[in-house]
Amino acid sequence: MRRSPAVHKRGSQRAHGSLCKAIRDLLRLHGIPCWRVGQKGSQRRDGSWYAGHDKGAPDIFGILPANGGGKALAIEVKSGARATLTAEQKMAKIECEGAGGVWITAKSVDQVADELGLGRA
Question: Where are the beta strands (DSSP E) in the chain?
């Protein structure tokens, strides 16, 4: 039996949320402060909706410790097999790296650990 798109989407969102949490847990374990960037929109009093973030914003924002240069850390989590950066995310990546920050497009916790040189717990 084929799943409906709504059920599939909900499952993908759950997988994405779980991966974001696992990455945040890894960062915090290594003393890297980090936060989930709000992705939900909000409803105005007139009933219209607006995005809760700038297009292209990463899923996780962190700050690498002083021994890592005190740099901004932006992590865009991609949980789907064919998931790629949007045009807005590509621009945010360029801006982040151009300002001296670190951008990771992450498909796994191990990838983040490897790119930041973190050991695994």
Answer: 34-36, 42-43, 49-50, 60-63, 72-77, 102-106
**Kind and range of the H or E run holding 1:** none
Local structure of 36: helix, strand or coil: strand
Q: Once rounded to an integer, what is the mean pLDDT over residues 92-120?
A: 93
Domains of the chain: 5-116 (3.40.1350.10)
27 vs 109: CA distance, rounded Å: 10
- Listed residue (61, 4, 8) closest to 32, CA to CA: 61
For residue 37, give the nearest of 5, 8, 75, 83 by alpha carbon: 75
Write out pLDDT tens, residues 41-97.
Answer: 677 788 877 766 678 899 999 999 877 678 999 999 998 777 899 999 999 999 999
